[in-house]
Recover the amino acids of this structure.
C-alpha cells in the first residue's frame, strides 16, 4: 500500500503517518525528518536545506526529489510506504507518478488531513518533537508522560526552529501557493480521501483506518 499524506503544516500529517506506519507495517518517510536529521548531523545537504527551512520556504525540487526517489528504492519499501511532506509541489508529484508508472505501480491513497489556518498556529507553538526517534507531542493536546522527555526513547524533546510564528505564517502561504494544488492533482487521479483533521488524533486515525482497512 502506497500512501501520500496531504495537509497544511501542522495539520497532523506526521502524527497520523506514524500511526499508519505502525498499524500497516510500512515505513513512514518524511522529507522534513530527513532534512532535520541531516541538519543535526551537519551534512552538506543539511546545511543547504536549513537556509530554506528556517525561512519557511521549500527546499528546491531537484534536491528533494533525488532524496525521496533513493529512499523509496530501498528494500523496506517493497510492500509500500507512507509519504509525509512529499510531494509538495506539482513537479514533485509528477516525478513520483512517473517513477511509479515505470514500475507499473501507483499511489493507492492520498489522504488530505484538513485543518483550517486558524487552528494551525496554536498547534505549532505547542509542538515538541523527539530529535532521536521523531515522535511528536503537543504541550497541551498530547503531552509526554514526563515533561520534556520522549515517552518512547527517553531523549530530551526539542522545539523546531521553523515553528516561530513568523515562519509558520510563511509556511502557510507557501502551502496555499504550491502544495494545495496537489489536492486537485490526486483527486483527478481518483485516489483522494479527505479527513477532518480538527478532531482529536484517535478520531482522525479511526477515519483514516476506515479508508485503508
Ligand atoms: P515538514 O517537516 O514536512 O513540515 P510541515 O509540512 O510544515 O508539517 P509539520 O511537520 O509542521 O506538521 P505535520 O502536519 O506533520 O503535523 P504534526 O503531526 O507534527 O517540512 C519542514 C520543511 O522542510 C518545509 O517547510 C520545507 O522547507 C522542507 N521540506 C520538507 N519536505 C519538502 C519537500 N517535499 N519539498 C521541499 N521542501 C520540503 O502535528 C503538529 C502539532 O499538532 C503537534 O504538536 C501535534 O502533537 C499536534 N496535533 C497533531 N494532530 C492533532 C490533533 N488531531 N489534535 C490536536 N493536536 C494535534
Ligand atoms: Mg511533520
Amino acid at each position: 500500500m502506497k500512501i501520500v499524506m496531504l495537509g497544511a503544516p501542522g495539520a497532523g500529517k506526521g502524527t497520523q503517518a506514524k500511526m499508519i506506519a505502525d498499524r500497516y507495517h510500512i515505513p513512514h518517510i518524511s522529507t522534513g525528518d530527513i532534512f532535520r536529521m541531516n541538519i543535526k548531523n551537519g551534512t552538506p545537504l543539511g546545511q543547504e536545506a536549513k537556509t530554506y527551512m528556517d525561512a519557511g520556504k521549500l527546499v528546491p525540487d531537484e534536491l528533494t526529489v533525488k532524496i525521496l526517489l533513493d529512499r523509496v528504492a530501498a528494500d523496506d519499501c517493497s510492500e509500500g510506504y507512507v509519504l509525509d511532506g512529499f510531494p509538495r509541489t506539482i513537479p514533485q508529484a509528477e516525478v513520483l507518478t512517473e517513477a511509479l508508472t515505470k514500475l507499473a505501480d501507483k499511489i493507492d491513497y492520498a489522504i488530505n488531513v484538513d485543518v483550517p489556518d486558524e487552528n494551525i498556529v496554536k498547534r505549532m507553538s505547542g509542538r515538541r518533537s523527539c530529535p532521536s526517534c521523531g515522535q511528536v507531542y503537543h504541550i497541551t493536546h498530547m503531552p509526554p508522560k514526563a515533561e520534556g522527555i520522549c515517552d518512547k526513547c527517553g531523549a530530551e524533546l526539542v522545539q523546531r526552529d521553523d515553528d516561530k510564528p513568523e515562519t509558520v505564517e510563511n509556511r502557510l502561504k507557501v502551502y496555499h501557493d504550491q502544495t494545495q494544488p496537489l489536492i486537485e492533482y490526486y483527486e483527478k487521479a481518483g485516489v483522494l480521501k479527505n479527513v477532518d483533521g480538527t478532531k482529536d488524533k484517535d478520531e482522525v486515525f479511526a477515519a483514516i483506518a476506515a479508508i485503508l482497512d
Q: What stands out?
A: The pocket of BIS(adenosine)-5'-pentaphosphate (ligand 1) is lined by residues 7, 9-15, 30-32, 35, 52-53, 56-59, 64, 85-86, 88, 92, 123, 126-127, 136-138, 141-142, 162, 171, 197, 200-201, 204 (CB under 6 Å). The mean pLDDT is 95. The CA atoms of residues 55 and 174 lie 11 Å apart.
